[in-house]
Amino acid sequence: MDKALDGAWLKNSAIANNIANVNTPKYKKETVHFEDVLKNEINKNSSFNLAKTDSKHMDVGDVSEMKIEEINNTSYRVDDNNVDIDEENAELAKNTLYYNTIVNELSGQFSRLKTAMKISK
User: Fold this and answer.
1) Could you give the 3-state DSSP secondary structure of residue 69?
2) In the chain, is it the N or the C terminus that has fewer CB atoms within a 10 Å radius of its CB?
């Protein structure tokens, strides 16, 4: 979940840059494909577990491929800018929902741990 949050935060930064530069001539859209990186890492290990209890489990450092990429092969306007503000706003909303869902799940896990620790006393 930690890496999912990192990826969503990085993607949010790229989207914010795109929105801020929507009217900048020759600006090229930035994107992050962290979902693909996470899926690939999960698929590598059929017994994926958040706690590394086996050598087949994903290391924390394995998702270092997450980075901001510039998309240079398109232009929507005469000034060579390729940012579509409607698409960016939709991606921002989608990414915000994803991030909030992960945060809520993580918060729920911490609550369950707190409850378990109170019971064991």
Assistant:
1) strand
2) C
